[in-house]
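User:
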Amino acid sequence: MKKEEWFADWFDTAYYHTLYSNRDEQEAARFIGNLTKKLKLPKGAKLLDLACGKGRHSITLNKLGFNVLGADLSPNSISIAKKSKTDGLEFIVQDMRKPIENKEFDAVLNLFTSFGYFDDLNDNDRVISSVRSMLKNNGIFLIDFMNAEYIIDTLIEKEVKTVNSIEFEIERRYDGEHIFKDIRFNDRNQVFHFTERVQALKLKHFETLLTNNDFEILRTFGDFDLNPFDEKTSDRLIIVSQKK
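Assistant: Predicted structure:
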């Protein structure tokens, strides 16, 4: 893994998990419950939670009766996730641009804006091609991404969040292609600065990526309650596609 890829460092720090520790677990569980009902996945289906972080979605999916593999680039996140390993629930360190050998899934889920991180735009195709190679015929690929149009229109340029006595100073900007989040803070007399950078991908971009890799888009949703997607008002862009 190239050192200059920002996510390899930031996602593997304890501070990343501190900053985002207030994520709503009940909302996540409700989303997963709604999703599995809508997709009509059979109990025991083999699912890949791609870019699973510490495994919160994987754990919920397993409790709902699915056979789940969680994969993430961050060794620290996977180390934490492995503490929840049980029957039908496993975790591995894996680059999402590369297929997992000798594995085949009924569905692959890419959740919570875990796409569009790469410097090379061709890596987006590599991810989707990798997913396709791991899916069974007619398998489902779901992407849960930010609604870039809405985020850009409502961008909060500056804010301060205090979590566990650490004051995170956050600045956001848009350069026409990426949404940046600069994160600065002090801890134990040391100054830290990390920058998140996500491609501002919109539905039209995903339509091209998926179509070029022989996927058919079945449905789009605009929030975790699976209401219809509206580019101007929706919080999320949730895409359900199927391998042709």
